[in-house]
Structure to design on (174 residues):
């Protein structure tokens, strides 16, 4: 017998699908390295990527807000990979299914974003602003700057004004 919560969760997910809000398994298209257990997370922080800026997206599969931010998350991942190469690592964690990692980062809602600067020994910071591309990009840029990271040779990071102009030009061309 299913609990009332499970039935409610199923009904909400079904309503989202019918309304076209949710895309079944949308999280599979989210960019980033998937972390699915605490030992892998710990190894990533303390060994594999300890000298890199690590940005984590804690999501929940049936979270509408997580799905709505996905396009901006993917855009930030693409931009930073272009600007910084492998100096910045983007990780995605299914919080409820990887609760030990979510608990370590004190995640209380979804989506939650967390940053670990190079060689931080597991001390990170949580993103606490509105979920927009520009604000999130600026938060990651600030972390990269504080960590002393420089863009790849020949890469110039456009300002928010430049990005807006490029977007406007792109929309006028289509």
């Amino acid at each position: 017998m299913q609990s009332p919560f499970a039935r409610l969760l199923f009904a909400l997910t079904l309503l989202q699908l019918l309304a076209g809000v949710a895309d079944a398994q949308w999280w599979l298209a989210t960019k980033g390295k998937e972390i699915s257990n605490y030992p892998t997370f710990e190894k990533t922080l303390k060994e594999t990527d300890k000298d890199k800026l690590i940005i984590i997206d804690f999501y929940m599969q049936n979270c509408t807000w997580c799905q709505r931010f996905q396009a901006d998350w993917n855009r930030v991942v693409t931009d930073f990979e272009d600007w910084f190469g492998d100096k910045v690592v983007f990780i995605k964690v299914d919080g409820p299914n990887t609760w030990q990692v979510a608990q370590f980062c004190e995640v209380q809602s979804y989506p939650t974003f967390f940053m670990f600067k190079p060689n931080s020994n597991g001390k990170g910071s949580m993103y606490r602003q509105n979920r927009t591309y520009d604000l999130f990009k600026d938060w990651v840029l600030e972390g990269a700057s504080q960590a002393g990271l420089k863009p790849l040779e020949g890469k110039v990071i456009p300002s928010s004004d430049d990005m807006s102009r490029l977007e406007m030009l792109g929309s006028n061309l289509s």
Strands lie at 33-34, 53-59, 88-94, 112-116, 124-126. Residues 45 and 122 are 6 Å apart (CA to CA).
